[in-house]
Structures are given as C-alpha cells and as structure tokens.
C-alpha cells in the first residue's frame, strides 16, 4: 500500500512542511543561511548539518553529520535536521562549541566555521567525552583555507580530557625569563558542556515513528517522483515496477552524477528503515552485512567484530577497517551505504578491490526470488551473467572470515592521505595451507587503473604452487605488469606512477606476509631485514601539538588599551553561530532574477554561431545578454590593457564568458545556460605551456629586467658554474565562498546598489558605472565581509558584476549571480605557473658571486595583473641573500588559459623558490649542507638590495638563529641521518629556509587610504574605512585602533562594513598592507576628533564619552571626522632598475621535518618551527593566525595542490574531489610559532608589520625537507647525480624520484607515441 503526502521534517526545532516538492531538491530552500554552500559535491564540509532519527525497534535516537548539499529533502521525512541556527545564537545563548571555536581564534573568513561547528557538535552529541582521534576524524571532511587548522584543533582539545603538549625547553625557559605569553585564550572562561541542555528530539517524530503504519511514501514533483518504501516487499514491488530507477540511500553517488553530469532519473527509489537491509550477523564462518548500512555503521561493526574474534579470522576485516578510516570524510561515510558503494563500482572504489579478493558473495532479491552472485571481476565489469538484473535489489554482503595461514591486505595512495580518491588502490589475499609458504590461493585486484576494479587472475593462477620468496616476487611483478596494463593516454594521467604503485603495493604485501610468516613460524620462514621493516610501518603519526610564543604587552599601557592583546575576531561569534551574513545570505529581493554564465568550451576558436532559441523558450527564462547588447560598453581597461566582458566573435581560453542567461530562478538559469548552442571553428596556434609561448614568441610586454654589479665579469673569476631550471605549477585560490554578487536597481535617479564579494569596491563601482554609462556617484558598492579571497576577487569579479548590473539595469529588477565551485575554478584563473632558469657562479665555500636568472610566468589569455606579478617577483627574487652580481629578466607569457591573477604572495612564492632551488643545487655541488650555503650568502645587517634600497637585516639573522635553536636543528639533523641509515623504504628530511619579504605597493597612490569616524551623542562610535574584511581581521584591528586613540572600550565601537558610499576611491585590499594603511587613516580621524574635543574633555576629565559628546554638540563642535593617509613613500624606475618600492621588510625562518614513503610517495610533516619578525603585533592572535594559515596554504602550493588541464586546454580539476587543498590530516604533528620581540620602531601603524602574504613562502621548507629525504633515498640507491624536482612535490613526483628496481621494471611509453591525458603546466 502506498500514499502521496506533503513532505515534513523538523529543522531548527520547527516543523517544516513542503507541499509542492521537487523530489531531489536539496536542503537549502529552507533558507536557513547559516549553512553554507561551498562546493555542492560534499567535498568541503561547509554545509554540514546534523540529522537525527528515532529507531522505534531499538528505542534509540541516532545523530550523524551530513552534507546538506547532497541530502535530498525527500529523504528527510520524519527526521530532525539541526542546522547551526538550532544549537545557539547571540539572540538566545551560544553553545560551548560555538564559543570555543571563536575564542580559540578558529575563525578567519568564517565561511567554513558553521560546518566545523556542526561536525564537532554532532560528535559531542554522540560522545560527550571524545578522544582527540575522534575529534580530528570528525573534522576530516571539513576544509578551511584560512586558519591552517591549528586553532580549530585547539578548540577541539578543550573538549578532550587530556590536553598535555610537551613544549620545547627553549619556549619554557623564555616564558620564565621574559614577558612571554604562551596562550592566546583562557579556557577558564569557557562555558561548560552540559549534555542535558541540548535540544530534545521532537516528540511528534517519536510518536509518528512508533505509530505510523509501514506504507510506501510517494512524493511527486513536476519532473520526478520519489518513492520511499518502508518494507522489503514494497521495495521489491517498486523495483519491479520501475526497474531502471536507481536505489538511493545516501545520494553520494547518484547526487553528484545528476548535478555534475546532467544525469536525470524520472523515478528514484529510496528505502527507509527496512530492517532486512540494515543488519549485521556474525556466524562461525562469515560476517553478513546489510546493504543499507552506512559506511560509518560498517566501520563500527568491523571494530566490534575485530575485538571479539581471534586475530587470524579478522584479517579481511582489519584491511577493510583501515580503508574505511581514510575513505572520504565522516559526513560522506555517514550517508553512503555499503550496498551503494559496491553497486556503483567506481573505478577508484576503496572497498571493492578488497571485497573482490575475499571470496565475498552478494545476496540479491527480486519478486522472482533469491539469488547469489560472487563479488568478482565479472560483477565489477558488469558482465550480464554476473550483474544485478534491473529488478533485483542487493540485500546483503557475505564476507568469509579469514583462515589460518590466510593473509589479506589493502593498499591505497591518494594526492592527500584522507578524504581523497585513490590514485591507485589494491586488495591482496594469499592462502598457504597449514604450516607452509607454498601459495595455494592468490587474489590480487586494483582500483584506479581501469574503467573499474581490475583483477589479476591470470597472474595469480600462474603463481599457485610457488614458494613465497624473492624469486616469486620478481615473477609476480612482471606477470602483473603484463596483465594489468595502462595505455599512455589513460584517463587520470600519472600513468608511470600508477604502474609503479601496482608493483610497489605487491612488494609491500610480500614483505607484510613474510613478516607474519616469520612471527608464526620463526624456524622455517626467512627473516625480514631490519632496514626493510619500515616499508610496513605507517608514516609518523601522533597527537597534534603546538606552542605559540609572543611578547606580552608593555605594562605601561593603559589597562583597557587593546593594542597588542590577542582579541577575538570581531565577527568570531557570528561566524560560529551562522549569523555572519555573506553576499548569498542576503534575503531575496522582490521579483529577483538569477544570472548564469555560458562559457567557452574551446581554448582558441572563432565563434561561428550562437543559437539562443531553445534556451529562450524554456520556462522562466527572461533574457540572454550577449556582446550585441553591450555594444559600445563591452570592454573596460584593466590596468594597461582593455578586456572584453563578453565574447561572441573569438574566444582565447576555455571558460571565457560568451553570454549570460537571466531567469526567474537559479535552476532555470542554469538549465537554460546548458541549452545555448555555440558552434566553434578551432584556430591555431593553441598555446598552453610556457615552452610553447617561448617558441611562438607570445609575450604580453617587453621583458622586465633587474641588474646589479657586473655579472659577466664575475662569471670569469668563480670556481664553478652551474645551470638549472625549475617548474612551479599554478594554484587555485579556493576561497570557501565562491564569486557572489547581488545588484539591486533603486528605482529612481538611475541609482544602483551592488552587493559583491570583492577586494576592490572602487573597481566594481568604476566598471559598473562604465558599463551602464552612469557617473560613479549613481553606483554604490557594498561589502560587509568576504568569505576568503587571497587575490582572486578583483578583476574577474568586476567583469561579472558589470554584466550582472547590466541585466539588472535593463530589466529594472534585482539580479543575483553566485558561481558554482566548478564554474568559479574554470573562469577565474589562479596563481601563475612559472619556469625559472638560473646560471650561478660560485666559490668552493658556497658563496654565489654571479647569478643570471630568467623568469617566465604563464599569464593566460589576458594581461590582468601578470605584469605586476613578474615585477614583484623580480624585486623580491633574491629572498634573504646578497648576490653581489645579479641579473634577472622576466616575461609574462600570453597563452590560451584563463588569465592568471593575484594570489597571496604575488610572484614571490615562485621567484623565491627558484632562488632557493639554485642555493640547494649549489650546496650539493659544493658538498655542503644547504643551511651552510644559505647562511654564507645571507644579507649581513646593513646592506643594499639589487634595486639599491637600503636594508637592515639584523632581524633576519636573529630569526634564522632563533629558528635553528628552537628547532634543535643540529641534534635533529643527526637523528634524521641515523633514521635514514636504519630504514631503506622510509626516509626523513629536514630543511630550514629564511625569509625576507618586502612590504609595499610600488607607488604612493596605491597606498593611500581613508576612513570616516562618527561619535554619537550616547558616546558610541561608528567607524568605516576602505579596507575589506576577508578573514585577516582588519575590522577587528581598526576597532582596536579607535579604542586606543579615543581611550574608550571596544564595546562602544561599531563597524558596519565597507562601502563606496562612505569612503570613496578605495584602493584594493591586498599586499599585506590593508591594516597598515587603513589603520593610519582611522588613527588620523581619531586624532582629529580628539584634538577638537580636548577643551571639552579637559573641562570634565572624569566625564564619560556620553557627557563629552553632548557637551561638544551643545557647543557646535563636529563629532564626525574623515581620516586620510597619503601612502608610504614609494618609487621604482624599471629604466634604471633602481628605486625605493618598499616601506619595510618582514623577516622570518621556518624549519620543517618530513617523513616520506619511498614506495608510494606519501609524506607526512612531522614538525615545523616558525620564527617571524612582526614588529609590535597589534593583535597576536590574528597575526599568528595569518602566519599559520599562509604557511599551510604554501605547504599546499609546494606539495599537493595540482591543476590538471587537457591537451585542448580544458581544466579537469574543478572542485574539491579533484583539486586537493591541505586538510586537517596534512598539518604538522608539531607546530611551534615564535614571534620575535620588537626591536625597532618604525613609522608604520604602532610599529607593526603586515603579515598576510609572507608566511606562504615558508611552506617551501616542506618542499626542501622532502627534497632532502628523496636525496637520502637516491644516495642509498647509488644515485649521486643532480636531483631536479619540480613543484608541487606530489606523491607522484616523490615516488618517481625515489628510483629503484620497481621504477625501472615498469614499461615506459615513447613520447609522441600517444596523446597524454593532461599537459604539464
């Protein structure tokens, strides 16, 4: 029996009823804006919510975290959904989780914070006293681009019973001797966690679950029907009636297919609470698991079974459990079902290769009866005879216990160790029979090397009867490589890496079994060499531990003076409660429209025709804006080169904007955009790489050049000369909030308001005014806050805002445009890939006397900021070193990629790495330690830069020395060498890198800033300024400035946001100087006010600000003032190569220790020590947060973040599933940050220094630590030649550099004999 009904569930403690439901609509239409939409594929965790259900059979309520972007509303019938709004708010009370993540400084831009909070909250609902492993595991599916995760872990640790961290002796002694602080927050102030005060499960839902008859529920929409059977009989009936309908449990497979690939299912069947699908039964010989069990439930069950059975019976279960710990994030594991994972048969499934070797059986059921099929290669290849029939349901999976003398293992290697799809994974099983080492049974399967899981059946058959020895291993490797073949053009690329992993995994299995055989029968089995044992050990792991050191504020300051105090981010609590409003959180405007872009699918082509007819005929479509509509206003000059807004004649990259669809809803706009038909004719040449640009002489501008000394003469007197080069890959900004804008016409006088997530309101105002042919005073740009930017929300944002404004102005209606993550990554570009070439002349002691360099950046299809990037790269390229004779030339290459743009560091992370690579190679050639060569070439206190600006490098030397001491470098270097001598397959590396980061914008005009401060009659203050709050805490620092200058408590001061209406002509927020410049403007305004009010205050010195404000008003004294700062003195002449472009220098040093697995390329950061010269910190919590966040982002740049493009210029990596930024598993196990005590005053804001960008370069300490480890592996293998490693140092590059018999054994494809899947950029 079935019935149709309205859908209802509980959210935010309220009953929600949806009458007309689109069946697969996700949770977001409820419009609780605290839940953030970050990627739409379940990969970032920003949309995490808690789902609670009551099970009437066991009388228990279950809670689990889930990704709202994947949850079909129809699956929530009868469930309680708790969003961030439901657990606490500033209007009611905040929850301890919200309080602690905010007060531990675990928020910066805040966009990811609600998801973080909900993940921790859900864990605490299930485990009020969690272990640290449970806490970090709960956050494994949540990404953060700002904080570096350390403060989030600190917040988690406050719920952990044991919070011991061994601090270094240096830190402890300093804290006793000097005024040194070691904490940024006080745990004693935190609200206690009281489980009795949590929201109760709605009683109505419990009653419904107990009493409601088991009937099939049907929800109907315009295009789709959702059938939710509650009994097995009803499920079989539904599947018989709709055999092609997918069975959806967690929607982690079907959902992304529908969203990303456009797959449509008119009927979806979703079983709900069917006991026969949700059970576990452990008998004498086997474990049977219901297909409806979530992967989290399977993980728990396997853990229980392992505890209760003898070890020899649990080897398969241990292997499965090991994979489940790293498979996806906890939200996905909570949603995904075992049956769905198996039946989907994804090529990179982690469980299927293991289940395929374990003699597992699938129990199937249909109306026609029961059937069993083996889970083997035929099933995985979807052979008709071994596959499910359309009307069949997978009921359960039967997994046999392991036998004595039977061994099972699983292996995987991914770009990131957790929450990342495997590059290659494997399941292996061998059975010897009683007491021998002769192979009786052998099964080997691999994932990631074919369209589905591949089983090496023939190889296994030929190895039966062989003894388990090295001869067998050698034969096995060759057999498997012959059978499991990969063409050079295989999808996913990394072909040689995959081939190597195939045999590397087999070798690991061989060693693992050999070790167990030795343990079981020490007499008969050969021993495993001690040096080889490391191949079987996991990479270094341990509890996360951190120490922080900064100087206490001078006690002479007034007690209420906030400068120098670790004050929480102004919006921290609102971030944690979801009350912080971002652009897309703004309420819908009456009659609002939505805009979606149509982008080019070709990299270099003429547009032959554009057919809009089908798109325009779709319901809800209002208009499509093309270049024709923008005639006369379709270009705008960005810096020195005009750029078109829309293209309808010729496109020069994939992702270029062709036209824009305007519709009544987001869904309608996106559907119509897919129906626009564009016909292209490809053009030549297609230029993608820097080498191709050089070949075609494709550059934007003449070269930029910097020269110092006499390079040519110096080369004649040096002892040695070397030449080398290094490639540095690009980087995606991956701000958590995608490009977002809402344009609202005001309805009179042609006024228009633009609400946009941007770093540059003035530019938005200018380009919109130009496009609408309006004066700038009619266009107002408003920015409350930005959910991360890193340089990526400037020029492309302006182009999209101008088109959106044009549509809004044309139709007289508000228009909203929010990019999907994939669109954003495709359209916006990122950090410039670089090619650096160097020729160095040096002496035997490592002194570099002559350096000739060439920098090439991949600028993309339009200029954007590419010229500025190479200029800044040139000015900062020497890093911390004095090269007496230097020549460096740089070119920005024009290619057929989306134009690359500013990204944190602005050219220095690439230019600095080129220099450090040269230093490392010089050290190797001299036979010296790299740190010795770094030290001998370092600036020596008072000196001169290549552009003849004076520099005092005293603090650079101090940072270097303190870093060496704090890290115990010498002792640990010896320990690393000892470890490497004792371990063949695991290696450690240690590297220390100095930092000199010049801060300045190159011109006075670019550094001007303004502010506006009002004092109201009640004594409260409103401040606005030209800086954008994008996570760095600039608004917090500005309030600290007002508090000090006006000597009033922070609670009296408010800041509403940034707007061109209050502060005009603002400069871009970037370059590490936002707080510097705007703070000086705010200070100027406050001093103006204070000077005016001096007579008033002196008459009543004991009065309050309310008294003084009223008195000033009564005497007609203005209580409003503008502040202005004209900018630091700055100049640079490229004709002479001389100038004073920078105001000051940030110094620092970082030491990192890493461990690598030579067989797989995996690596782990064991420890990082960072020392930074920050001047007098305005807010140590914010400054340390910037250092840590930048370091982790830099670590991503240099190790795991890798962009992949097709040979046709199409970006493959368009979301968190393909593009991996560092997750919580990637941060150093130990992290120690020390701020150098201030030693000199300057004319900056309170002698502080801007820290937004500098720390990113210190991430290369990881790069060189890995380089050191790889070098150790190569030298042990007799490879002493120069080691050339490019960035990022991914697992692929690490593994292939650790050459051994396995890398030599694999087949190699001849270049030119195949078309590669991707091109190296």
Automatic annotation (TrEMBL):
Binding, [2Fe-2S] cluster 1: 39, 44, 47, 69
Record-annotated FAD-binding PCMH-type domain positions: 219-404
Name used for this protein in its record: aldehyde oxidase
Family from the record: Belongs to the xanthine dehydrogenase family.
GO cellular component: cytoplasm
Cofactor: [2Fe-2S] cluster; FAD; Mo-molybdopterin
Residues binding Mo-molybdopterin: 759, 790, 904, 1071
GO BP: lipid metabolic process
Description of how the protein assembles with itself and partners: Homodimer.
PANTHER family: XANTHINE DEHYDROGENASE
Molecular function terms, GO-annotated: 2 iron, 2 sulfur cluster binding; aldehyde oxidase activity; FAD binding; iron ion binding; molybdopterin cofactor binding; NAD binding
NCBIfam families: mam_aldehyde_ox
Organism: Ursus americanus (American black bear)
Binding site for FAD: 247-254, 350, 394, 412
Keyword entries, A-Z: 2Fe-2S, Cytoplasm, FAD, Flavoprotein, Iron, Iron-sulfur, Lipid metabolism, Metal-binding, Molybdenum, Oxidoreductase
A UniProt-annotated Pfam family: MoCoBD_1
């Amino acid at each position: 029996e079935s019935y149709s009904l309205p859908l209802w569930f509980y959210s935010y403690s309220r009953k929600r009823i949806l009458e007309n439901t689109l069946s697969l609509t996700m949770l977001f239409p409820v419009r609780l804006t605290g839940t953030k939409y970050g990627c739409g594929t379940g990969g970032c965790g920003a949309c995490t919510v808690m789902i609670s259900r009551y099970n009437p059979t066991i009388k228990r309520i279950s809670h689990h975290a889930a990704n709202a972007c994947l949850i079909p509303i129809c699956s929530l019938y009868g469930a309680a959904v708790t969003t961030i709004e439901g657990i606490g708010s500033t209007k009611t009370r905040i929850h301890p989780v919200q309080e602690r993540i905010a007060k531990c400084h675990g928020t910066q831009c805040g966009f990811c914070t609600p998801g973080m909070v909900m993940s921790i909250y859900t864990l605490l609902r299930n485990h009020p006293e969690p272990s640290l492993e449970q806490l970090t595991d709960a956050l494994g599916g949540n990404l953060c681009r700002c904080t570096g995760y350390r403060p989030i872990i600190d917040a988690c640790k406050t719920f952990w019973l044991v919070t011991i961290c061994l601090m270094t002796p240096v830190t402890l002694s300093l804290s006793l001797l000097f005024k040194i602080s070691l904490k940024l927050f006080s745990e004693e102030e935190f609200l206690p966690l009281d489980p009795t005060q949590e929201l109760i499960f709605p009683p109505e839902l419990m009653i419904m679950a107990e009493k409601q008859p088991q009937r099939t529920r049907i929800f109907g929409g315009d295009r789709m029907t959702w059938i939710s059977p509650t009994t097995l009989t009803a499920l079989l009936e539904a599947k018989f009636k709709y055999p092609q309908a997918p069975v959806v449990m967690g929607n982690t497979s079907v959902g992304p297919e529908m969203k990303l690939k456009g797959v449509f299912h008119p009927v979806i069947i979703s079983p709900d609470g069917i006991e026969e699908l949700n059970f576990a039964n452990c008998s004498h010989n086997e474990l049977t698991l219901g297909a409806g069990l979530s992967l989290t439930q399977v993980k728990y069950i396997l853990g229980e079974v392992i505890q209760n059975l003898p070890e020899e019976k649990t080897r398969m279960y241990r292997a499965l459990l090991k994979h489940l710990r790293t498979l996806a994030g906890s939200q996905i594991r909570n949603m995904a079902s075992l049956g769905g994972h198996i039946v989907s048969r994804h090529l990179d499934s982690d469980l299927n290769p293991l289940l395929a070797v374990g003699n597992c059986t699938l129990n199937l059921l249909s109306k026609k009866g029961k059937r069993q099929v083996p889970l083997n290669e035929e099933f995985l290849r979807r052979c008709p005879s071994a596959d499910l029939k359309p009307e069949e349901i997978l009921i359960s999976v039967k997994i046999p216990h392991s036998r004595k003398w039977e061994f099972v293992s699983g292996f995987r290697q991914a770009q990131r160790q957790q929450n990342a799809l495997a590059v290659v994974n494997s399941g292996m099983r061998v059975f010897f029979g009683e007491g021998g080492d002769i192979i009786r049974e052998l099964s080997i399967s691999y994932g990631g090397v074919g369209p589905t899981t591949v089983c090496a059946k023939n190889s296994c058959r030929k190895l039966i009867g062989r003894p388990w020895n090295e001869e067998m291993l050698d034969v096995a490797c060759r057999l498997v490589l012959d059978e499991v073949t990969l063409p050079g053009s295989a999808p996913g690329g990394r072909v040689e890496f995959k081939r190597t992993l195939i045999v590397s995994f087999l070798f690991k299995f061989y060693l693992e079994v050999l070790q167990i055989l030795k343990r079981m029968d020490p007499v008969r089995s050969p021993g495993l060499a001690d040096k080889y044992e490391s191949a079987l050990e996991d990479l270094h792991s341990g509890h996360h531990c951190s120490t922080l050191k900064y100087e206490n504020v001078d006690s002479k300051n007034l007690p209420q003076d906030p400068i120098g105090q670790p004050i929480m981010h102004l919006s921290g609590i609102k971030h944690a409660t979801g009350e912080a409003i971002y652009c897309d959180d703004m309420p819908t405007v009456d009659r609002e429209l939505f805009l979606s872009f149509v982008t080019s699918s070709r990299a270099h082509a003429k547009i032959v025709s554009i057919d809009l007819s089908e798109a325009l005929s779709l319901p809800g479509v209002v208009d499509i804006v093309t270049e024709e509509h923008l005639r006369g206003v379709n270009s705008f000059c960005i810096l020195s080169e005009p750029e078109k807004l829309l293209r309808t004649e010729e496109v020069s990259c994939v992702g270029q904007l062709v036209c824009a669809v305007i519709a009544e809803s987001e869904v309608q706009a996106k559907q119509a955009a897919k129906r626009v038909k564009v016909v292209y004719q490809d053009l030549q040449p297609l230029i993608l790489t820097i080498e191709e640009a050089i070949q075609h002489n494709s550059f934007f501008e003449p070269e930029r050049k910097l020269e110092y000394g006499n390079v040519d003469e110096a080369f004649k007197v040096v002892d040695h000369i070397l030449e080398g080069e290094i490639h540095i890959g690009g980087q995606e900004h991956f701000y958590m909030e995608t490009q977002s804008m809402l344009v609202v016409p005001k309805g009179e006088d042609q006024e228009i308001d633009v609400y946009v997530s941007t770093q540059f309101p003035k530019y938005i105002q200018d380009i919109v005014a130009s496009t609408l042919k309006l004066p700038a005073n009619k266009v107002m740009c408003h920015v409350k806050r930005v959910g991360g930017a890193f340089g990526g929300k400037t020029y492309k944002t302006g182009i999209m805002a101008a088109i959106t404004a044009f549509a809004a102005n044309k139709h007289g209606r508000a228009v909203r445009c929010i990019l999907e993550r994939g669109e954003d990554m495709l359209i916006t570009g990122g950090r410039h890939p670089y090619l650096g070439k160097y020729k160095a002349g040096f002496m035997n002691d490592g002194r570099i006397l002559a350096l000739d360099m060439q920098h090439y950046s991949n600028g993309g299809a339009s200029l954007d900021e590419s010229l500025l990037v190479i200029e800044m790269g040139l000015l900062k390229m020497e890093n911390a070193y004095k090269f007496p004779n230097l020549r460096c030339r740089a070119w920005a290459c024009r290619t057929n990629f989306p134009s690359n743009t500013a990204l944190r560091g602005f050219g220095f992370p690439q230019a600095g790495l080129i220099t450090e690579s040269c230093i490392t190679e010089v050290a190797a050639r001299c036979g010296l330690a790299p740190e010795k060569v770094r030290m001998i070439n370092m600036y020596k206190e008072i000196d001169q830069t290549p552009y003849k600006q004076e520099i005092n490098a005293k603090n650079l030397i101090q940072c270097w020395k303190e870093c060496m001491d704090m890290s115990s470098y010498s002792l640990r270097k010896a320990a690393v060498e000892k470890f490497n001598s004792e371990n063949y397959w695991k290696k450690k590396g240690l590297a220390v890198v100095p930092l000199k980061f010049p801060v300045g914008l190159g011109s006075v005009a670019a550094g001007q800033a303004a502010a506006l401060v009002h004092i109201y009659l009640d004594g409260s203050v409103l401040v606005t300024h030209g800086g954008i709050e994008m996570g760095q805490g600039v608004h917090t620092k500005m309030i600290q400035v007002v508090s000090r200058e006006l000597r009033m408590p922070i609670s009296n001061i408010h800041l509403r946001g940034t707007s061109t209406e209050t502060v005009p002509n603002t400069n871009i927020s970037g370059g590490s100087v936002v707080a510097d410049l705007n703070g000086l403007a705010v200070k100027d305004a406050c001093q103006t006010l204070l000077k005016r009010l001096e007579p008033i205050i002196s008459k009543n010195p004991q009065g309050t600000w309310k008294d003084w404000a009223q008195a000033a008003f009564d005497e007609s004294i203005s209580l409003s003032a503008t502040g202005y700062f004209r900018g630091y003195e700055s100049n640079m002449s490229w004709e002479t190569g001389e100038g004073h472009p920078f105001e000051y220098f940030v110094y620092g040093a970082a030491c990192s220790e890493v461990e690598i697995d030579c067989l797989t390329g995996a690596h782990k950061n064991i420890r990082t020590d960072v020392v930074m010269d920050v001047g007098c910190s305005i807010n140590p919590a914010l400054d340390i947060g910037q250092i840590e966040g930048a370091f982790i982002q830099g670590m991503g740049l240099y190790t795991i973040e890798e962009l992949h493009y097709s040979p046709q210029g199409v970006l493959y990596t368009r979301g968190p599933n393909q593009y991996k930024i560092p997750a919580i598993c990637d941060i150093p196990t130990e992290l120690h940050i020390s701020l150098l005590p201030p030693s000199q005053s300057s004319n900056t804001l309170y002698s502080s220094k801007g820290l937004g960008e500098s720390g990113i370069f210190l991430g290369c300490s990881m790069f060189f630590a890995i380089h050191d480890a790889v070098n150790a592996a190569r030298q042990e293998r007799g490879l002493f030649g120069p080691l050339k490693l490019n960035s990022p140092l991914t697992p692929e590059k690490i593994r292939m550099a650790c050459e051994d018999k396995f890398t030599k054994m694999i087949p190699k494809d001849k270049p030119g004999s195949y078309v590669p899947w991707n091109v190296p950029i």
